[in-house]
Amino acid sequence: MDKISDDAAELINASISVGNSINVNYYVHLTGKYTDAVMRFTVLGETVTVQGERVGETEKYKFTYKGIAPHLMGEIITAELVYNGEVIDTCDTFSVERYA
Length: 100
Hints:
- The protein is mostly beta strands.
- The protein has one helix at residues 96-99; strands at 2-3, 9-18, 22-30, 38-43, 46-51, 53-54, 60-68, 77-83, 86-94.
- Strands 1-9-8-4-5 form a five-stranded antiparallel β-sheet. It has a four-stranded antiparallel β-sheet with strand order 2-3-7-6, with no helix packed on it.
- The protein starts with a strand and ends with a helix.
């Protein structure tokens, strides 16, 4: 994770779930004002913005990019944590194929 703001967030882990569709899950520790951050996923110039779901009563949030099409498995996807329109962390640049 390329951290721009030291107090913004900490990437805990990432995972892929495969069923009827391909989903990528990011778990991020968020504190303070950054709990309102969103995760922005970009692939082939198209961007999907995802609101995080708080995990229990912790400061851990889950961001899920759902429904990745099989033909995009080899394409580079950039995952960025965004707060008030500014990128605060570039969490990852990956392809589903690499993770699988």
